[in-house]
Structure formats: structure tokens, C-alpha cells
Amino acid sequence: MYNLKDDMKDPRHPEDPLARWAGNVLGQLPDRTAPPSLAPRILAAVARHANRPWYQRPWVQWPVALQWVAVALMLSAIAAAWGLLLPRADAVGTTAAELATSQLDLVRPVGSLASMLGALGNALLLILRGLNSWVTVAGVGILALFWSTTLGLGTACWRLAGGGSGRD
Amino acid sequence: MSDPAQFEAFVLAYQDMVFSTATRLLGSDAEAQDVAQEAFVRAWNHFPNLSGSPTAGGWLKTVTRNLCLNHLQRHRARWKVFSDFTREDDEGGEREWEIPAPDTFQDTLLTADQRELIERALARLPDDQRIALALYHFEDMDYADIATHLGVSLGKVKTDIFRARETLRKKLQPTRDSVGV
């Protein structure tokens, strides 16, 4: 014959009557009924989530053309940074475009893309060369200072305000 | 692409479980609804895999629990401050572990009123006690796991759970004997 008592014992604490009692009592609680407003609210949130604009979605869900643009921009930024960090151009007298394209062996097979990246890198290098190096360093330093200050202050305010919920 | 009608059926099937898990951990219906919403939005992102899966409920429960723990973690500073206040029924200081003799507890079948009483008592427990108790009894986590997840000592987890059980037992004391099995 089915014995409810045996079924309700807490196997993790057979020797602890209070734990067993609590396991028995809490085990009898059914799921609480969700408020009637919950399902419509969830479905509305999911609809908003499904219809959000491309820039709020993960990169893999962007339109293909925008994915290519993003890749091109990222690679050009890398190429530009590469050109800045390796100031060989002045030493050997090569142009920035030659430097950028020569250092992009990985993307050379795509030909036109490499040329475009080289041109972008060249433009960026020309702009940066037009600036006094100390001005550049100071500018970057100030930006870094602003960024870290904002991050620090923002974090402190966020924590003081209760940590933020991160919810929709 | 997910089928909205199918997802709506999924929400209706699991919303009570998700809401129960969240509200018992968070102690707040409003916050539980926020977490439930987030859990189902995540479920939407994985719905092609979840739809029809026998593990969908377990996946959803785990996500809900983790979202609740993340939520509590974010509010940890505030949570600790408030949960450290003693309540009227706390006697202060380290309490002796008073485990009654085994025959003083009977397995009981709860009436609907008693279940409601327990739910209310659960919601009114101090946060640290309620969370530890819920993780132990509703989420089947052991003491060490709870201590790790909450970032507290094993002793505190045991004490909190013991106190929570004691509080619940006292709530049911007046009527417990009349419904013994």
C-alpha cells in the first residue's frame, strides 16, 4: 500500500527531523499561479525583442551587407593601428598605403578589399602624421583619462543607485 | 524562425513554474515577474532547440534560478545591509541548535489554508534565510553549493536554513497537530 509518509521523507537528512519535516511541508507546495498579466507581458517583451533594430542584435544577426562593412571597418582600424605601431614607413620611405597592404597578407587574396583597407589606412595615417606627435599623445592620454574617469564614476553611481537591474 | 503560437503555448505551460521559482527566491512578485520575463526572452532565443524538448522545463528552471542569483548578486550590498537587521523574533547572538526529539515532528498533509500560510511565511522570511531555504528545498542544492553561489560560509548557510525551518514550524504550530497523518 502506498505510504505517503515514506514518500515525503527527506533522503538527504533522514536523521534530522526538522529538515525532514521542512522537506515534507515545502514539498507539498504547488507552483504558485502566475498573475494573469504575466503571459501578455512576456509575449509583448518577446515581440519587442524579435523586432528590435539590427544594431541592438548580436553581430551574427545583422544584415549581411552590414556584417561586411563592420568587418571592413574593423580590419581597417587594425591596419591603421598596425601602421602606427610599426613606423617603418618613414625609415624605408614607403607610403602608408604600401605599408598597410604589405602587412595585410591575410586579406591579400581578396584583392580589392585589401586595396580599400590600404586606402583607408593611408588616409588615417596621413591625418595622424599631420598632427604633432605630442599633441597626439596628449590627446590619447586625455581621452584615456576621460574614459577611465567616466567608467569609475559611472560604476560608483551605478552601485550607489542599487546596482541596476539590467532588466527590460 | 520560431512559431509565435507555439511559443505562447510554451509560456502558458511553464509560466507558473518559472514564476514560483523566481518568487520563492526573490521574495517579491514584482521582481519575480521581471525575472520571468527575462527567462522567457532567453527561451525565445533558443526556442528552435527547446521546442518539443523534454528538458525544456529543466533548462528554463535553471535559467530562472541563475537569473535570480545574478539579480541577488547585483543587489548584494543592499541585500546584506537589510538582511543583517535582526527581527523581533530573533533573539540575538548565536542561537543554540535546538533539534527536537524525532517524535515531536509528524509528517503532515497541509490544507490549502496552511499552504497559503507557508507561502506567506516564506515571503516574509529574511532574505538570506529564504534564499538558502529555497535553494535547498526547491532547487535541490546542497549546503556547499549554496554557500559557493551566495559567497557565504557553510556555517551561515546551515544556520540560515535552520532558522528558516524553525520559523516555518512555528507558523504551523497552532494547527499542525490537528492535521497529522
Brief overview, please?
Chain A is mainly α and 168 residues long.
Report, as a whole number of angstroms, the end-to-end distance of chain B: 52 Å
The biggest chain-chain interface is: A-B, 44 and 55 residues
Number of domains of chain B: 2
Oligomer: heterodimer
- Structural class call of chain B reads mainly alpha
From the 3D structure, determine the CATH topology of the largest domain in chain B.
Answer: Arc Repressor Mutant, subunit A
Report the order of strands and helices of chain B: HHHHHHHHH
Q: What is the chain-wise order of helices and strands of chain A?
A: HHHHHHHH
Major beta-sheet overview of chain B: none
- Please state roughly what percent of the residues of chain A sit in beta strands, choosing from under 5%, 5-15%, 15-25%, 25-35%, 35-45% or over 45%: under 5%
State the CATH superfamily name of the largest domain in chain B: Winged helix-like DNA-binding domain superfamily/Winged helix DNA-binding domain
Q: Please identify the structural class of chain A as seen in this structure.
A: mainly alpha
Strand tally of chain A is 0
Q: State the major sheet of chain A.
A: none
Number of DSSP strands of chain B?
Answer: 0
